[in-house]
Amino acid sequence: MTGIVKLLLVLLAIIVLLLGGYVLTHRNRQLLVLHPENNRGLRILLTVWGILLVILAGATLAVIFTTSKLLVAVMLVLDALGVTGLSVIGWAYTMK
Length: 96
Hints:
Elements: H1 3-25, H2 40-63, H3 69-94
Helix pairs in contact: 1-2, 2-3
């Protein structure tokens, strides 16, 4: 992999890690328009999703040290699904 790809993967991992940390720190208080302090199910879901995002960020950093383009592609897709899934969860809970 070239240096620019590694740099972009590090940037992606930092973004996913910050997002996961933000979700984990806000699981007991208002998170944008969501109120997990009033909804136990949402609080549990945000906890699980935050942990998942932190794990994905760690896995993305680990993939940087491999030479497999397939693993890089898989991590890009998983990171995209993880972040998109968080948006879908927020949308689903605001529709109630």
